[in-house]
Amino acid sequence: MNKMIKPKQSLATHNFTKKFEKVSMDIFYYVQLGIIKLFDMVLYVKYLELFNED
Question: Are residues 28 and 40 in contact, defined by beta-carbon separation less than 8 angstroms?
Answer without folding.
Answer: no
